[in-house]
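Hi everyone,

Forwarding the result from last night's run.
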Amino acid sequence: MGKVVIFTLLMCMVVGCSSTGRSYVETEMAETLEVAILPNKSKMFTYRLRWPEESIPNHIRVARRGTNPGQEFAQGGIDVGRGTYERLLENTAYVVKHSGYCREGFFELDRSISRYHLWVRGECKDSATAADQQSFGAKQTLTPERWGKSS
């Protein structure tokens, strides 16, 4: 009987810790994918989630300009925690795949995570084809209409 209880608790923990789909897409954050195909056919991108500027508290906007850098964040934005990085990478993988930009995955080159702006800069593992160049051009910013907001 005790083993059944322990097993049940462990299964609940596994289910509770598993991914529940894409994150932050049901918030006010704007989601974009900035793409750039270089002359050597490398496909670069920056995936962004950004809180609308008008929704960021005034003292945060002032602090970002260097006037009061020590001031604490107010309510709003997202709660940055232990799983934020993983959820951001899951979103990035979903978007680059479903937009048709990276067919074979990507390498992460850089990232930034804050309460009001998250981004991942990366490079696709596959090179640009003629069809990619036709579809994406040299540089553009894609929006969720290109990949859909579903999980």
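The two ends are 38 Å apart (CA to CA).

Cheers,
N.
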